[in-house]
Amino acid sequence: MVKDIVKDPIFLAQKSEPATEADKQVVTDLLDTLRANSDRCVGMAANMIGVRKCIIVVASGPFQFAMVNPVITKKLKPFKTEEGCLSLEGKRPCTRYVEIEVEYLDQDFQKKTGKYTGWIAQIIQHEVDHTKGIVI
Hints:
There is one protein chain. The protein is α+β, with helices and mostly antiparallel strands. It has one domain: Peptide Deformylase (Alpha-Beta Complex). 23% of the residues lie in helices and 39% in strands. It has 3 helices and 5 strands. The protein has a 5-stranded antiparallel sheet with strand order 1-2-3-4-5. Strand 2 and strand 3 form a beta hairpin. It is globular and about 35 Å long. The two termini are 27 Å apart.
């Protein structure tokens, strides 16, 4: 189900709780909401739809995928950039990394490890920050 985007800075500043298999519907809702906003959004975290769980979704071209309880285990090559967010007006400066490694559970709650670079790595970092209560 497509959900409204949360813009409350107090809610967004709260850290998310680990997700469990009981949160599978949140994954579906988050993917639905990402697809509904694909014209202006490339990633979302569950707190952006009002659920404080460590779940993010990322758009990569025509594909979307979920990461449950993602943990960035490696970061290489920092760079400065500016990012926008559906939950905020305008853009904000931030530091991101060109290459990252992430441990997470997939949509079926199977353990995965992935290496990501460039734009996809930047999206993942932005959304993982959301789960920690960090909004650019």
